[in-house]
Amino acid sequence: MATDFAVLQYLLGAPPGNSFWASCINLDKLKIEFLIGDRHCDRVIFPAPPSRCVKNPKRLKKRFLEEVRSRKSSLTATDTLFVVLVGHGREDGGFCIGSVNSDVVLLKHNLELALEGFEGTTIVISTACFSGQWDSERWTLLAGAEKDKESVSISKSASGHCRGGIFVTSLMAAQAEKYGVLAPSCGPLPFLDHRSLLVHLVRSWRG
Questions:
Q1: 53 has which bridge partners?
Q2: Which residues contact 182 (CB under 8 A, 6 or more apart)?
Q3: Which of 69, 88, 150, 162 could be bridged to 100 by S-S, CB 3.0 to 4.6 A?
């Protein structure tokens, strides 16, 4: 999940002043890089992205919803708000904040209420299992799994790299191909620098 979190943050490329990224884990302290792609494909390494560490799940949920309401109020009808959820999902559609066994859960209607009155475009990206249940009239959903399915991750590499999920890998590959950029696909195994992809990928996300 940390790999997906890193990749999506770099692909969206929003300036720090226009975005809020937070996690219950301090990614900087992990002191690792994040590799995406299967071992039989080209792979890309991403450094740990900047983010806030809010260890208390209840505080993180509260802060997240506050940020959504705050960002919403500063945007216009021509703006687009991206909401990214990277974590575990429950069979009832709840998004777990913290570990998979966390009793702090973000529900779809929590986000719908936070977005109430927003006239711009909202895109929700969720990598969680059963995230297809988050379909809503208030946003366009990019879900990592159908409403009754678990999301799939690529197994950890022998070198210890967590290689991300199939969903985020596919998003990156699909966008990169539009610009003729080498993306994770069958072929040789170089370790690519993420910066060679970003300029092309961000253009496609922003239209």
A1: 23
A2: 42, 176, 192
A3: 88
